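### Sample
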Amino acid sequence: MEAQAQGLLETEPLHGRDEDAVASADFSSTLSEEEKEELKAELVQLEDEITTLRQVLSAKERHLVEIKQKLGMNLMNELKQNFSKSWHDMQTTTAYKKTHETLSHAGQKATAAFSNVGTAISKKFGDMRRK
């Protein structure tokens, strides 16, 4: 009995067979004929509205494509613009600027170190030739 009572208090959403049970339940016997007619009329009206909204959306999407074509915009251009904007936004962040500055400084030091190593190697080769 306790397990049965606990099942009545579940707050989980309906799943699989529960949805099927609710969908197959016949609630029409609790409705009056007048309520049934009102619901049928509302159903027809909602279906008509949905159809109209789909048609309007489709027309607006076609118009959007036409405008983009007239402006010379296509998917590749949009991707390029989005990438450029994102890259610019990233470059203006403080973190990027600090990282760029640090790496630039490290690069300069590495270049100087390689130059010194190159000079030392050249000097050694020169000394070896003279001997």
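Confidence is low (pLDDT under 50) at residues 1-6. This sample (Tumor protein D53 isoform X3) is used throughout the tutorial notebook.
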